[in-house]
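Minutes, project check-in
Item: structure for the 47-residue chain
Input as provided by the requester:
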Amino acid sequence: KDIPDIPADAREKLKLIPVETVDDVLAVALSNGKDRRGSQTKKGGTA
């Protein structure tokens, strides 16, 4: 879905991180938590 198609209440619960390349995705996904910009798991720790 496009972001505007996501219901507002669901969008408020998401942390969207804009990326341009797969390298950007991997950098965020494999970071030690410092680059995650506040993303948290349900247990309250960093993802």
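Outcome recorded: The chain has two helices and no strands.
No further action items on this chain.
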